[in-house]
Write a structure and sequence with these properties.
The protein is of the alpha+beta class. The protein contains six helices and eight strands, in the order H-H-E-E-E-E-H-H-H-E-H-E-E-E.
C-alpha cells in the first residue's frame, strides 16, 4: 500500500526530468527500487517502524455545515465538527455526505511510531543528508500506506469493500466508495479538530499525543474522517 510514485518522485526526488519513458523506468528499476528494498530491510532489522492503529465507528447526524457525533447510548451530542462549504459550483461540504437523522462516521488514526523520526533526526544531525531524505520520505509514505490499508479494512467492515478497485494502482486513484478526509486539507482545514478526534479515539493508547499547535506526535502519524457515502470524493473549498 506504499505509493511508489509519491515515494520516488515527491519524497525521494527521482523525477523524469528530460528522461523519456523507458529511460525513466530504467532509473526506477536500477536506482529507486533497490534503495526502497534497502531502506525497508534496515527498517525491519532495526525495528525502526512500529505501526499502530486506533479506529472506531460512531453514530452521527448532519446539521447544516456541521457533523454532530452522538453518544451511542443517549443520542446526546458528544462533539461537533464544523466544515467549510464551497462558495460556488456544487457548494459541497463534508456534512452533506451524512443523513440528517442518524448515520455512521468512521474515525481513524495511524502512526509509524517515534523511532523513525528519532533515527532520521540522528542522520540529519550527523550530516548524512541523503540517508535522512530516504528514511524520512519512506516514513511519510509508510504512514500514508498504513492509513490506506486500514481504510480498506474499514470499508470491508462497513460492507462497501466490494466496490474497491481490483488493483493497488486503482485504489491510489480513489477507486473505492467514499473518502478519507484528513485535517489540514481544504475540505477540513481546522487542525484544532484533532482535539475532537482525541476525545473520541483516545490515541494516547497507541502512544500518540497532540502538541499545542494541534500537530500529531510522533510526526509520522495521520488521522482521518472516514465517509462511506458513494458520492464522497476529494474536493477543494475556495
Amino acid at each position: 500500500y506504499i505509493n511508489e510514485t509519491a515515494l520516488f518522485r515527491t519524497q525521494w526526488q527521482f523525477r523524469p526530468g528530460k528522461l523519456k519513458g523507458p529511460e525513466y523506468r530504467k532509473l526506477v528499476d536500477e536506482e529507486a527500487r533497490p534503495e526502497r528494498a534497502r531502506v525497508e530491510r534496515e527498517c525491519i532489522e532495526q525495528e525502526i517502524l512500529v505501526p499502530r492503529v486506533v479506529y472506531g465507528y460512531f453514530p452521527c447526524r448532519s446539521e447544516g455545515d456541521a457533523l454532530v457525533v452522538l453518544d451511542p447510548g443517549s443520542d446526546e451530542e458528544r462533539v461537533r465538527f464544523e466544515f467549510p462549504r464551497q462558495p460556488r459550483g456544487r457548494r459541497l461540504c463534508i456534512s452533506d455526505f451524512f443523513r440528517e437523522d442518524r448515520d455512521t462516521v468512521g474515525l481513524l488514526l495511524v502512526t509509524a511510531g517515534p523511532r523513525v523520526s528519532e533515527v532520521a533526526r540522528e542522520l540529519f544531525e550527523s550530516n548524512r543528508y541523503r540517508e535522512y531524505l530516504l528514511l524520512h520520505g519512506f516514513g511519510v509514505e509508510f504512514t500514508e500506506g498504513l492509513a490506506e490499508l486500514w481504510h480498506r479494512r474499514m470499508r470491508q467492515e462497513l460492507g462497501i469493500g466490494g466496490e474497491d478497485a481490483s488493483t493497488i494502482e486503482g485504489l491510489f486513484r480513489q477507486g473505492y466508495r467514499g473518502s478519507r478526509y484528513s485535517f489540514g486539507y481544504p475540505a477540513c482545514p481546522n487542525l484544532e479538530d484533532q482535539e475532537k478526534i482525541f476525545t473520541l479515539l483516545e490515541p494516547s493508547r497507541i502512544g500518540v499525543c497532540l502538541t499545542e499547535n494541534w500537530q500529531l506526535e510522533p510526526e509520522q502519524s495521520t488521522s482521518a474522517v472516514v465517509v462511506h457515502h458513494p458520492e464522497a470524493r476529494y474536493f477543494n473549498v475556495g
